[in-house]
Automatic annotation (TrEMBL):
Record SUPFAM superfamilies: Periplasmic binding protein-like II, Winged helix' DNA-binding domain
GO CC entries: protein-DNA complex
UniProt GO molecular function: DNA binding; DNA-binding transcription factor activity
Name of the protein in its database record: LysR family transcriptional regulator
Origin species: Flexivirga caeni
Extent of the signal sequence: none
Protein keywords: DNA-binding, Transcription, Transcription regulation
Membrane-spanning ranges: none
Domain HTH lysR-type: 2-59
């Protein structure tokens, strides 16, 4: 059976790219990290680490083992947390990752609910977009995450609960004539668009493609307030999710609901049962999602 400390050393090296940085992260000496790596290679009879300039990099076998090691370490940590929680030795602290518009809408509502429904539970929040939030869950650095997807799909070893169908909206200057969603999209085939980062704009591009054109993207920002200000004052257009608009809608824009949604999920690791504190937070997030008021346009 592989030693958890050696797996921890391998994961730290994979994350930091050097033995010295891994030693600092784990509060070990460099010789200890090197020893753990050598022993792990001996146990697996595989070369896991190679020198690369002043640092090191993992071999393909090393990367494969590091990915599984993250899952093993996360399960081990969760088992320990559950035992301590059952024994009353761990507080009801739940570590949560959420994307920005969920952090501004669902999380505050969940906190308000928890104050009465589970006053012993506290939330520690980190803001993270879905790909990063999923990795935080896998690595055991958060207990659950609020994420979104535009297509259905489940990840191995992750428990995913869909809590909201978040409608998408065309955002355009408020002085333009009112049109149906499809006509409104087609009317902007020659308009400049505001979109998110390269990773985040795929749905916008696809909706425009479905309407028969490729959008001319002139501005890129993931700041929903900036998007609306640019649209209101710059004769631009964009597409935003309802959660973002429920936080704030600029008075100078008009929104039109499109026939598309993104699915908002609460994601945890592994199969039930979950710790009671995590269950409480997941339940309040789901309730907040059911109660959220999306734009009616």
């Amino acid at each position: 059976m592989l030693d958890l400390r050696r797996l921890q050393a391998l994961v730290a090296v994979a994350r930091t790219g050097s033995v010295s940085a891994a030693a600092g992260e784990l509060h070990y000496g460099q010789p200890t990290i090197s020893h753990h790596l050598r022993r792990l290679e001996a146990e697996t009879r595989t070369v896991l680490v190679q020198r690369a300039g002043r640092g090191v990099r993992l071999t393909p076998d090393g990367l494969a083992l590091a990915r599984r090691a993250e899952e093993i370490l996360a399960l081990s940590q969760r088992a320990e947390d559950e035992l301590l929680l059952a024994a009353g030795l761990r507080s009801g602290l739940v570590r949560l990752a959420a994307f920005p518009s969920a952090a501004a809408t669902l999380v505050p509502a969940a906190l308000a609910d928890l104050r009465t429904s589970a006053p012993g539970v506290a939330i520690e929040l980190v803001e993270a977009e879905p790909p990063d939030a999923i990795e935080l869950v896998r690595a055991g650095r958060v207990d659950l995450a609020v994420t979104f997807t535009y297509e259905s799909g489940e990840s191995e070893l992750l428990r995913t609960e869909t809590v909201l169908a978040d409608h998408l909206y065309l955002v355009e200057p408020g002085d333009l004539p009112i049109r149906t969603a499809r006509r409104a999209l087609r009317a902007h085939r020659h308009t400049s668009w505001v979109a998110g980062c390269e990773r985040c704009r795929a749905q916008l591009v696809q909706l425009c493609a479905d309407a028969g054109f490729e959008p001319e993207i002139s501005f890129a920002t993931d700041d929903y307030l900036a998007v609306q200000a640019l649209v209101a004052h710059g004769s631009l257009v964009s597409i935003l999710p309802g959660l973002a608009l429920s936080v704030h809608q600029h008075p100078g824009v008009r929104v039109t609901r499109l026939p598309a949604t993104r699915q908002v999920h609460v994601v945890t690791y592994g199969a039930p049962p979950r710790p009671r504190a995590v269950d409480a937070v997941a339940a309040t997030l789901a309730a907040a999602a059911r109660a959220v008021a999306l734009p009616s346009a």
